[in-house]
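[audit] Reproducing an earlier prediction to check determinism. Same input, same settings, fresh worker. If the tokens differ from the archived copy the diff job will pick it up downstream; this log only records the rerun itself.
[audit] input (400 residues):
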Amino acid sequence: MASSVVVANGNLNPNDTRGKTITCKAAVAYGPGEPFVVERILVHPPQKMEVRIKILFTTICHTDLTAWQGENEARRAYPRIFGHEASGIVESVGEGVSDMNEGDLVVPIFNGECGDCKYCKCEKTNKCERFGVDAMKKVMVSDGATRFYTMDGKPIFHFLNTSTFTEYTVVDSACIVKIHIDGSNGDLNRNIKRLTLLSCGVSSGVGAAWNTADVHFGSTVAVFGLGVVGLAVAEGARARGASRIIGVDINSDKFIKAREMGITDFINPKDDERPVYEIIGEMTGGGVHYSFECAGNLNVLRDAFLSAHEGWGLTVLVGIHLSPKMLPIHPMELFHGRRIVGSNFGGIKGKTQLPHFAKECMNGVVKLDDFITHELPFKEINQAFDLLTTGKSLRCLLHF
């Protein structure tokens, strides 16, 4: 499915496998840090309010990497199918699903939206009471069982509401979004590849800049950690007209790519003995309007917080922190006027807001192509993980 996608009657057209248990390829993790085993598995049909998806493209996020490595023992569950950033087509729907049909183009989302709970009905949050991001979740909500099994009938656990390292996956309908993209110009396949990025990284970063921070024209921005999410923050800030975007990372090799994606100035903390916040303070006359912590490191978070200007500076926490340690900020430091806030999935309500966000991205407001640095066949997923681990790739697109 790497070169073309079949279209019939205006919709993407999967095989007629509805209601059947499917045998397909998947990358199964059997232990923390162990190489993925690409093998055939069984995928059961979707149950009530569930959808089965044929995955077209999937990528690897740093969250997949840390979860696979099992850094947090409480979140370990094996065997397991990881992955949460993908694009695909609806193969079949379970009872009660009314907002999508077989053949629809969709993206799975780790932070779902049921539309009925008090959180979903509140415009101030994109949290969902039943289907919000939950790294501990490993089975389906409806019956507490899994939809994945080995060929000899042993259960395989789910991951982050999605599990996309498989040719077919089953997700709750609250965790899937129907997206329409224009294929009339002959670029349907290319656009579906781009769409894959909106499941997590790009949406989380750009959304943090647009929704959580609401970066304004002419503002100054500092981004700590120049992976996909950090660069997506920079893209979002660039699109909003930020006058200066400072990138901070200990890997100077990232700076060349980052310059192409909106970063105007660079700091490698290893190159100067002074604290980064002092350097940024000197560069900007007291600090930036907005700082974004995208590294998942408490020391970096403190630097980001102190890099924000006294009186009005805002720090947005985007990185995932596995450490049980608390925030490295004294309560009285907040009296200086700096603020700090967290951002989950860029503040985007998946089912109601992601389609419009996708349209903006597809129209070129955000340069999506720059995030895809490698493409590999799905069977080479272990090589793709190596590329991410060694810092050689932003997003490696995997195809079946």
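[audit] rerun output stored. Observation attached for the diff report: The two ends are 6 Å apart (CA to CA).
[audit] end
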